[in-house]
Specification:
- This protein is α/β, with parallel strands linked by helices.
- It folds into two domains: 209 residues, Rossmann fold (3-Layer(aba) Sandwich), CATH 3.40.50.10540; 34 residues, no CATH class.
- The chain has nine helices and ten strands.
- Strands 5-2-1-6-7-8 form a six-stranded parallel beta sheet.
- α1 packs across α6, α5 crosses α7 and α6 packs across α7.
């Protein structure tokens, strides 16, 4: 298996000295640990022997070697896995699982995105590891969270975008539900996970206590409905697709022009008066 680049031993950052055990894959968890690595933490990414993270094969395009031959490592994998070291371990193998439990003693954070309860049988769940290391910060990322009626269901970015409502807002008026062009539910969940881990580390440094962070794709997606969500709660009316238009600000959209398209973003009346002068229509 190709390994992610080894961190520069001379590199520094605000999280220098922290070690993160990354049991996550795909995008949400790797986005989180990549950000922590960018800030100086030492990221140990655990991958399946032989195959590795699923996204290694999510191409094309793939990285090519100096002879122009594809290596089988995709651009998708590289987008979320810089500043990490890879370990090929099979958690279903008792010896490998035991090695991970020993490794946790020297780690500050564990992050995983297995199904709820999926790591308990390997002794890699929070309850077990917290007995070994009481000040451990343990972050679990799932589709629907550790509790509730959907806790056992798997979750992907597309499902979160659909269930959480953003697909009902995105796209042209009258069109079909439309997802955002990148895995935005995964990415924002990774951002929220990063923020939560930093807060938990602050708590640990003050109290000596670890924490179990429960973060879900759907919860995060609903949170970033922002004004559209608040509009619904206040009015009781479901928002509609507006394409590139804005529900409260005009003009704030794309216009076709002679040589392509132009974006006009006018945020207040003063800017609108200035805009009218610029286009020669003060009337």
């Amino acid at each position: 298996m190709a390994q992610a680049p080894h961190p520069d031993p001379k590199a520094t950052g605000p999280l220098e000295g922290l070690r993160i055990l990354d049991l996550s894959r795909i995008l949400a968890g790797p986005t989180c640990t990549q950000l922590l690595g960018d800030m100086g933490a030492d990221i140990l990414k655990v991958e399946r022997p032989g195959d590795g993270d699923d996204t290694r094969a999510w191409g094309p395009p793939y990285v090519c070697d100096t002879d122009g031959v594809e290596t089988g490592e995709s651009a998708y994998y590289l987008c979320a896995n810089r500043n990490k070291r890879s370990l090929a371990l099979d958690i279903a193998n008792p010896e490998d699982a035991a090695a991970l439990r020993r490794l946790v003693r020297d780690c500050d954070v564990v992050i995983e995105n297995f199904k709820v309860g999926g790591l308990a049988k390997y002794g890699l769940n929070y309850a077990t590891l917290a007995q070994v290391k009481p000040d451990l910060v343990y972050c679990s990322i799932t589709g629907f969270g550790q509790t509730g009626p959907h806790r056992s269901k798997p979750g992907y970015d597309l499902l979160a975008q659909a269930y959480g409502g953003i697909m009902s807002l995105t796209g042209e008026p009258g069109g079909e539900p439309m997802k955002v062009g990148v895995g935005i539910a995964d990415v924002v969940c990774g951002l929220y996970a990063t923020s939560a881990i930093l807060a938990a580390l602050r708590h640990r440094d003050r109290t000596g206590e670890g924490q179990h962070i429960d973060i879900a794709l759907v919860d995060c997606q609903i949170s970033w409905l922002v004004n559209a969500g608040a509009n619904y709660l206040l009015s009781g009316q479901a928002p509609k697709r507006l394409g590139n238009q804005h529900p409260n600000i005009v003009p704030y959209q794309v216009f076709a022009v002679a040589d392509g398209h132009a974006v006009v973003a006018v945020g207040n009346d003063r800017q609108y008066r200035a805009f009218c002068e610029v286009i020669g229509r003060p009337d």
